[in-house]
Amino acid sequence: MKKDATTNSFINPEPHVIISCRDKDGRDNALSIGFIANVSFNPRIIMIAILHTRYSHHIIKESGEFVVNIATEELKSEVEYLGSTSGRDTNKLENISTTDATLINAPLIDMCPVNFECRVVECLKPGTHDVFFGEVLKVHCDEKYLNNNKSINWDKINILHS
Ligand SMILES: Cc1cc2nc3c(=O)[nH]c(=O)nc-3n(C[C@H](O)[C@H](O)[C@H](O)COP(=O)(O)O)c2cc1C
To answer: Over the chain (162 residues), what is each successive 10-residue block's mean pLDDT?
Structure first.
């Protein structure tokens, strides 16, 4: 027996990841998101949905580049912090270690075991959020989670989710 649930429902669980980016003056920022999905085999494309009011929004719109940093359960407080303060008011990455990405101009968040370097190929606004479609140019993975064939052993990664 099924009854109507509210259409306000989201698909759950959703992964909680950190999106990092760099503005045209070289200032880095990062925010947490839950609205993310794989959308293409070849090229590999990931979509992320960001409200236009987020400070990161204009950075990604202008630079056309972002990094998807996979967060683990151990990073819950960092994800809360990056998802509740704005780069408009503070340098959120001041005490968070980063490394420059290789193929794009953005920071990788070191504490995240997997980082996807992405370049925006399209942007749509189907509803409240702008959806950035990013082609995956490079993937970095902590060697302890890499299989011999360079695939990622996701079973070993304790992904943070809702
Ligand atoms: C777990 C979590 C998930 C979030 N998911 C999204 C999301 O999918 N899209 C979005 O625009 N904001 C999302 N937010 C809110 C932003 O991370 C938050 O507003 C952040 O402070 C924006 O930072 P910025 O202004 O520096 O860009 C989420 C926050 C948290 C804690």
So the answer is: 95 98 98 98 98 98 98 98 97 98 98 98 98 98 98 98 97
Q: Give the pair of three-digit tokens for residue 140.
A: 């970095």
Q: Which CATH number fits domain 17-156: 2.30.30.90, 2.30.110.10, 3.50.50.60, 3.40.50.1820?
A: 2.30.110.10
Domain ranges of the chain: 17-156
Is 72 in contact with 157 (CB distance < 8 Å)? Answer: yes
Of ligand 1's listed atoms, the one at least distance from the Cα of 30 is 26
- Looking at residue 8, what is its pLDDT? 93
pLDDT of residue 54: 98
> Which protein residue has the closest C-alpha to ligand 1 atom 11?
50
Indicate whether residue 51 lines ligand 1 (CB < 6 A): yes
65 bridge partner residues: 119
Q: Residue 69: CB within 6 Å of ligand 1?
A: no
User: How far does Cα 155 stand from its chain's mean position?
Assistant: 20
